[in-house]
Amino acid sequence: DYGVFGAGLASVLATTVAVIAGFIYLSKENSTFNLKISMYTDLVHIKNILVLGMSSALNNLFSTVRILIINFALMKMGGASLVAVFTALCGLSGFAECIILGVPQASNPMLGVFAGEHDNNSSRLLLLLEWKYGCIFAAVFSGIIIVFSGFIKNIYGLESSILIPIILLAISIIPSLFCMMMSGYYNMVSLNRFSWLILFSRLILMTVLSLVIELRYNLSPFIFLVSSELLTILLWLGVVVLYHKRHPEKTVFLMMI
Hints:
By secondary structure, the protein is mainly α. The protein is built from nine helices and no strands. Helix content is 80%, strand content 0%.
């Protein structure tokens, strides 16, 4: 029994095998993929690649830091029992990310094309479709995890009910989806700083603020799941309104010309 070390080792080994298998498949004779070591010196293209990829990198980095912060705060609030509940919520969040991250990522390439062509009507229509279908998927998923909250509790070996934390997680999915839709949109239209601001706010800034308030006023420990997203939306509204006052030639929220 290797415990947590064994689980971590298994995860690392599985990822390594998957990467190796992927490269082997891509290197087949009939593949157009060509793996070679070379020095790319076009600094302009390197900068563009870094800027476009920064949102994904920051999302992964901030998500990791967020988990450490939350674990620390939950240990302060209620000890290992709350951390165990959060572990279960993290498992469910992995499925929720199929909606929160998957829906925007599926549309981002098309948004990039529309933005390059300055096709504002198509961009708006695509964002509305993202929102419509994302909310439908979120509602279905939320209903499932709420109905089966007792079953989920038993899977993770938890003693007390986790219905309230699951309800809070379910409520947070739709505002999370909105935040990631806007972050993805801004990244595609080269308004990267707005994308980074949304990511930093929802994953770090507002999460920390919510946890501090919970600790200070002895509130329910998982309210931060919802409050961090809603506070991020409020911050975003304030920033885009101020930006619009300085750049009145652009629309308020999507900043189109």
